[in-house]
Target: DUF3817 domain-containing protein
Amino acid sequence: MKKSVLTRYRVMALATAVMLLVLCTCMIFKYGFGMGADLTFVVSQAHGVLFMVYLVFAFDLSSKARWSFGKMLWVMLSGTIPLAAFFVERKIRAEVEPLVNGSPAAARA
Model:
């Protein structure tokens, strides 16, 4: 597996996670304080686009790493849970780096 597959996934996971936190903050301001509706709309659209790209890259990584359907689904859904993508990305990186370096036996251990 190429290193670029993991790098693309990592960049999109972090970008999606950051945008989700920004979106949550905007939602608090919109519904809690009644301000920032226009900014919330823009941030939600940006997060939606980034999330779709994240799904494509997560699927690509999962197919190359030969994950089960459940694991692939968990990784994809982590982009919808605030803060979860940070932890899932770190775990996936630690798991997939041995595959990138050419040591599949180390990745399974």
